[in-house]
Amino acid sequence: MKVVVGQGSCGVATGAKKTAAEFEKQIKEKGLNIVVDKTGCIGTCYLEPIVDVYDDNGNLTRYVKVQPEIVADIVEKHLVGGQVAKEHEISDVDKTFIGKQKRIVLRNCGLINPENIEEYITIGGYEATKKVVTSMTQDDVINEIKVSGLRGRGGAGFPTWFKWNAAKSNPGKEKYMVCNADEGDPGAFMDRSVLEGDPHSLIEGMTIGGFAMGATEGVIYVRAEYPLAIHRLEIAMAQAREKGFLGKNLFGTDFSFDLRIKAGAGAFVCGEETALIASLEGERGMPRLKPPFPAQKGFWQKPTNINNVETFANVPWIIANGGEAFGSLGTDKSKGTKVFALAGKIKKGGLVEVPMGLPLKDVIFGIGDGIKKDKAFKAVQMGGPSGGCIPASLIDTPVDYENITKTGAIVGSGGMIVMDETTCMVDMARYFLDFTRKESCGKCNYCRVGTKRMLEILERITSGEGKDGDIELLEELAQKIKDGSMCGLGQTAPNPVLTTIKYFRNEYEDHIYKKKCTAHSCKPLLTFTISDACKGCTLCSKRCPVGAIKGEVKQKHVIDQNVCIKCGKCEETCKFGAIIRD
Amino acid sequence: MKKFRLNIDGKEVFGLPGQTILDIAKENDIYIPTLCFDERTEIYGSCGICVVEVEGNPKMVKACATEIAPNMIIKTTTERVRESRKTNLELLLSNHVGDCRPPCALACPANTDCQGYVGLIANGEFEKAIELIKDKIPLPGAIGRVCPHPCEDKCRRKLIEEPISIAWLKRFASDMDLAGEDPFMPDIAAATGKAVAIIGGGPMGLSAAYFLRQKGHDITIFEAMPKLGGMLRYGIPEYRLPKEVLDEEIFLIEKMGVKMVTNTKIGVDIPFEVIRNDFDAVLVGIGAWISTGVGCKGEDADGVIGGIDFLRKVVRNEEIKLGENVAIVGGGNTAMDACRTSVRLGAKKVYNIYRRTKDEMPADMVEIVEAEEEGVIFKNLTNPIEVVKDANGHVKQVVLQIMELGEPDASGRRAPRPVEGKTETIDIDTMILAIGQAVDPKGFDGLDLTRKKAIVYDSETFMTSKEGVFAGGDCGNDKISIAVEAIADARKASEVIDAYLAGEKVKYEKPYTVERQDITEKTFEDRERQCRPKMDQLEAEERNHNFTEVVFGYDEDQAMADAQRCLECGCHDYFECKLIDFANEYKVKPDRFAGDVNRIEFEDIHPFIKRDPNKCILCGLCVRVCDEVMGVGALGLVHRGFDTVVKPTLEKPLVESGCVSCGQCVSVCPTGALGEKLTIAKSVPLDTDCTDTTCSFCSVGCSLHLETYGDMMIKAVPDKEGAVNKGLLCGKGKFGFDCAELDGKLLDPMVKKEKGLEEVDYHEAFVLTAKKAQSIGAKYGKNAVAVAISDRYTNEEAYAIKKFADVIGAKTLCFNNRESGIANVLGFDASPNTIDELLATEVILVTGFNTVLNPVIQIKIKQAAQAGAKVVLINPVGSEQHFEFATKVLYVKNDLTFLKEVAKALLDMGKTSKAEGFADFTDSLAKVATSDDAKEVAALYGNAKKAMIVFQQNFVTTEAAALIAEIAVVSGHIGTPRNGILQVKAKNNSQGLIDLGIRAGAEAMKGVKALLVFGEDPVDADLSGLEFLMVSDTHMTETAKKADVILPGTGFASTEGTYTNTERRLQSVQQAVNEDVSFSNWEIAAELAHVFEVEMPWDDTHDISIEMDDQLYKYKYAELGEILGGVLAPEKAALAAVKDAKFVNPLGCTDNLMNVISERLPKPAV
Question: What is the pLDDT of residues B732-762, one digit of tens each?
Fold first, then answer.
């Protein structure tokens, strides 16, 4: 029997370490001969800490939300008694969260111990690398990837084989394979999940890519905010080196390849490949002009290929199962699966991996189980802060590169932030723009000043000071910023604004002309009043920080609108639902 | 390589693969604006101003970064491109804090460059000041006296105490000009054949004549009155504006060739139609000469007269019966003029009637105060409601309604309202109505009029309803105003008329400027209070009975002192700012993006570089040139997004950042974020003139653009096309260009007398010098007289001085000459190879090099390293250098041990030579044991196909230089391109002196009793045995202090000629300024020769040059910018046994100016 505690960052954040310690303690106390192991995130982050109990036949029982205080119960019933502790077991509904997915990238996440290479080898790990270096040519590999139709999962969706081939074709002895693990979109954590849960897949992917393009050195540029990922990568790399899977003469061939980690300092723009290269070289993380492309002149001016973690994680599977197997999944132009980070006002948030082309509705309602508190679905922001907003009316859109791009959003790295009727779309655009403009490197004037000016316009709209012409000014600026910026950050920063104007122009107009926020979200535009439901309990009056609420005990209270600062404390406080927000 | 054909803006052009669109556009004179491009740095592409459209590409592309492709069709000026550039500029300007122009200049209706001329006066440049004033104000003497000076109202100095006396300073400059022999006259363009009639000779008409005449048009002014001047003559009393001043200024305009027809009223004497037919354009400026009344009962009485009518009568000496009691109605300057004139005409009681209080009076406060001093009785808060007539219908009394002030009206002024039933009646003999004026448009049939009968014209084109008829000043658009407003109209209308005459239609548009709105008293709270100098004027009792001018005007000291108070508000880089040029070109309206501005606190303590990051547009040029061109990296970008800012490294003060004070950052900054701190008395933004010349400090010979204004040297900018420097420059060249003009400059000759040095006239100094040299020569023999010539001097100057030395049989020397070690080996004292050969050689041995002496050479070596050369630095311990780019850096003992080891190692490698003395050379090295380092260096150098050695002649010893040459000879690295030696001499013209035959150094001083020193300060030389010493220099040097005679010398900016740089390149020196010194350097030599009755028949340096070329074969066919003689190979190398000596022994520089700037430059942080 074996107990496996999910210890990705999401598990650790919910207390998985304490849970694991509690298991160890109790197992020791009880004198049981049961190993407590760890694994990465399985994707159902909303159920963490997750504990899997394997019986001696390998059968799995999954317990969810296992806080230390219920460990004793599971130990007693299951580990000692041999009976499933039903009340803590995962529900059938939650099982479907995983069940409806097709897991290639996340195939090992949550199943193996990422700190133990043997487990990875047991399930066929490094077979793909062996196959490549011992029996394939560079062109064979590139062709296999071409057949698979794999496109870069970092956001742009550029065909991976093409980049590898370009890097291979450019002359030079020194070439570099770089992994972009600078995952920066708010709410996106698929790369972290792979790094923490299945680091060897990445190592294999990079080694295979390195072989294909002719690189002997790889660099993993990972954000310093992912200490657990770095830790597990370091362990995995050391173990791989020990096994001879990294380093000189892999599998006894002439091919040598090794990796090193570079911790990034946390600038969002370093996810842009030229800025990433600048940062790798010790310069300020600022994008450079393309051309020359990294495949021509990249790291230290040498041919360089950059892919993100998710892209690489697909590679060993493709080699092992064949490009056609991968290509059979997804749509005509968008093949394979894609991992999405489902977040926001969704019942079941977490990582989901689905074949490309699945309708948006199936992801949000089928897997995510719909909107929290069963409120109305309003829109989903796709592709992170550089992405765009897809309204409820387009919920049948198939999730693939082409169809998502048509809506004005992008697949991006796979962020999906679900919004309900209480989300103000202007404020949402403001939020994302605030993120990107802070992360602008400051090089291009349009991005540096333009996004700031757009933000100021949005701020004045959400604070009720919008002016006639503001929407047009936003549209003009947005277009010019897209046109005039050097890198993807600036070229996409206006997307949330443009898509919300496209689909929710009326909300902008309401803010500007009617001074109303129909989602009742923008505080300066709200009025709080007290209805007849008021019982005169005086609680709101006591909580009001500015003394705006007057009224006698057991009499209906009144809010002085001139004094009210619209903080909403009264609404939170009222037990009778008498506070009306409008 | 096959060229691509492309089309830019319809023009078929060609380019090579790899070139960018911007490259091709530049080559073909197609203008694409850019703010962040510099060809010396990597393409950066941040500003986005250079966007263009390429046919078939849906996106715009950056011209600087887009490589051309075959058959590209490029459009650089489409609407989309212009819109993108415009918005881009608007965004930049929305976060750009500063004052493009000073508030004074913006407040002046004529946009006179007040800060400019005030600054010029502060610098003592009075002639340039009047020239600048007359660019906008043709009648500065008059305007300086009568203008109500809106400029001063906006002067920020008043936030401290009082505004600058801008108007009085204008008057001062004008008075100086008119008092001079040769008052300023503008240049007049070639005749255009177009004729313009100007109707009305007031400030508007005269000014328009002045401006239009400059453009070459034929101008005739028709004036109805007997004399010109308009209201300046007939509306302003003599005590404020003496007619003499006005007459002189009108005379100057007449002298320009303007025809002036007086006593001729259009519509009466000549029909308007005739004028229209006879002239190509007509400008109507007839003013507003009708006095308007108050509309009260009895106003038609005898003895009631209009204010301007009254003043005019006084000017014309017409009969006026004022009586004893006079009431003047109105609160403006005309009313005050009438009051004060009435006092002067002897009225007993002069009342001023005005319906508000003194605070609301439109007149100048000084006029009100002076009127009161002169006895005018102010009846404020009264309004005439009835004029009471006597039996003859003559005014007897006036009934005044008592008023009070109500609430402020729309204009902010408190409206007067009658106090019911309260009146006052005063007895008067005359009532003068100075309420307002109106236009008399009679005779101008066919012109549209306003309701008030003024002439209608378009406010942007100044055109009336009749084609070709223009109008401005008081007669048009109901805009009756002050004189300077009329002058402003004249200038704007002149531009439009000039264009009209050329067949173009233009509109006058107000230029865009960035202005600061955040300046308050607090901004200046740490400024010292310093009131304007008091101006002398007549006391009330001295002036109230006559028409003598009341105020006397400033003298020079007062004017300069007041001008020094200027706060220098306007941006110093206005005249070279690309941002403001583009802003106007693209007609920006940045207000639509008004929002937060990124306010940055910063230090500004660098002695030469002025920083204001609030004006920075983050083009990154400063950061990039500092890093990529200079290899210094003293600046960097800090923070992200909107908060991004350029800061010195590690956010330290700039002086501590590793900055080498080269000023490259300043030269490339497209805005005023980085600028030079000027050494002139008052920094002032000026549209400078530019002279191309050569730096006068070290022997590299960097080409400079020397920017000057009048005789002021403003700044030096490296020439990107410079043959040697290609845009490089060090701190000495950048900031030392005006050292010859620094404080303490010698202006008069001096002779040592009993009490020490005394100023004398030139004759005495010349004769004394000549006679002393002669008598000492006679006494001790010719060897006792020596002439030292500075290697700072041009070839021509040095030639002239040497020729004089030959006249008196004296020997010549230069204390800066060190005996050449390579001459002993190679047979010539000249660098065999040139600087740029370094960039293409394989190995460079730098043996004895101190970067601060020749920073540009260090950069060249660094560039060579970047291009792939292996650099080895061998310096003695104690002379450590920043040579991080070097393959190997060795610090050795300060003797020849290591160089000998290298030589020995080369011999051990089998290197040999057929040169004479090879055996002695080999023998002397026989016992030398070679270290591993020496072997390594020898291997690297000896095995290279091409290798060069660099050393500084006055840094290493003669013996070391000889050994270096021997190493080159033995290894075979000599005498072919990119294969040899770069000998770096000390000074800009050290090589020239050698070529002229001035080859001796301090050693020649033996036995010298009389020494004449030209431009040297040999502080280390022992001059105690001298019986006579003459020194010519720009400043009182240590040597000059010991002199018996001192003659003022001049610097490089006031002379013409040539230098020969260390690589034997003949370089041009051009005159940029005149120095305030009577004799130039060569003229001193000629004058001294003249005492010996030897005439030097030259008019200028050109004559010297011709003679010199005849005397010096090498220079005869030399071309400017070219190397004399190409790569030099030794005809017969001579080796010798190696002696023991020091490795380096720096020779102190004898150029005082170079020592001064070296001392002033901050020492770079280590």
Answer: 999 999 999 999 999 999 999 999 999 999 9
Alpha-carbon B321 to chain mean position: 57
CATH fold group of domain A526-581: Alpha-Beta Plaits (3.30.70)
Structure tokens, A249: 């003469």
Residues of A in contact with B636 (CB under 8 A): 284
Task: Assign a CATH topology to domain A425-514.
Answer: de novo design (two linked rop proteins) (1.20.1440)
Could you give the C-alpha distances from A539 to A267, A551, B114, B789, in angstroms and in order?
46, 11, 68, 98
Q: Long-range contacts: B895-898, Cβ < 8 Å, 24+? A: B895/B1140, B895/B1141, B895/B1142, B895/B1143, B896/B959, B896/B960, B896/B963, B896/B1138, B896/B1140, B896/B1141, B896/B1142, B896/B1143, B898/B874, B898/B931, B898/B933, B898/B934, B898/B1143
CB neighbours (10 Å) of residue B445?
11
Q: Please indicate if any CB of chain A lies within 8 Å of the CB of B593.
A: yes
**Mean pLDDT value across residues A128-147:** 96
Closest CA–CA distance from residue A11 to any residue of chain B (Å): 33
CATH number attached to the domain at A117-327: 3.40.50.11540
Q: Where are the beta strands (DSSP E) in A232-347?
A: 258-264, 304-308, 337-344
Q: pTM of the predicted model, to two decimals?
A: 0.91
Mutate to test the interface with A, among B84, B87, B596, B647 (most CBs of A within 10 A): B87
Partner residue facing A483 (CB), from B44, B67, B84: B84
Give the separation between CA B934 and CA B890, rounded to whole angstroms: 10
Q: Which CATH architecture has domain A337-420?
A: Roll (3.10)
What residue ranges of chain B have pLDDT lower than 50? none
A421-449 pLDDT, tens digit each: 999 999 999 999 999 999 999 999 999 99
Class of the A2-92 domain?
Answer: alpha beta
CB contact under 8 A, A442 and B637: yes
Instruction: Identify which of A267, A289, A440 has the shortest CB distance to residue B65.
Output: A289
Tell me how far CA of residue A49 lies from CA of A46, A487, B571, in angstroms.
Answer: 9, 40, 64
Query: Where in B439-528 does DSSP place strands (E)?
Result: 469-471
Tell me if chain A has a CB within 8 Å of the CB of B844.
Answer: no
pLDDT in the model for residue B1165 = 65
Interval B713-724: pLDDT, tens: 999 999 999 999
Say whether B642 and A448 touch across the interface (CB within 8 A).
yes
Partner-chain residue, chosen from B44, B48, B67, that has the shortest CB–CB distance to A446? B48
- Shortest Cα–Cα distance, B509 to chain A (Å): 26
Domain boundaries, chain A: 2-92, 117-327, 337-420, 425-514, 526-581
Residues with Cβ within 8 Å of B603's Cβ and at least 6 positions away in sequence, in order, are B611, B653, B654
Predicted local confidence at residue B1166, as pLDDT:
56
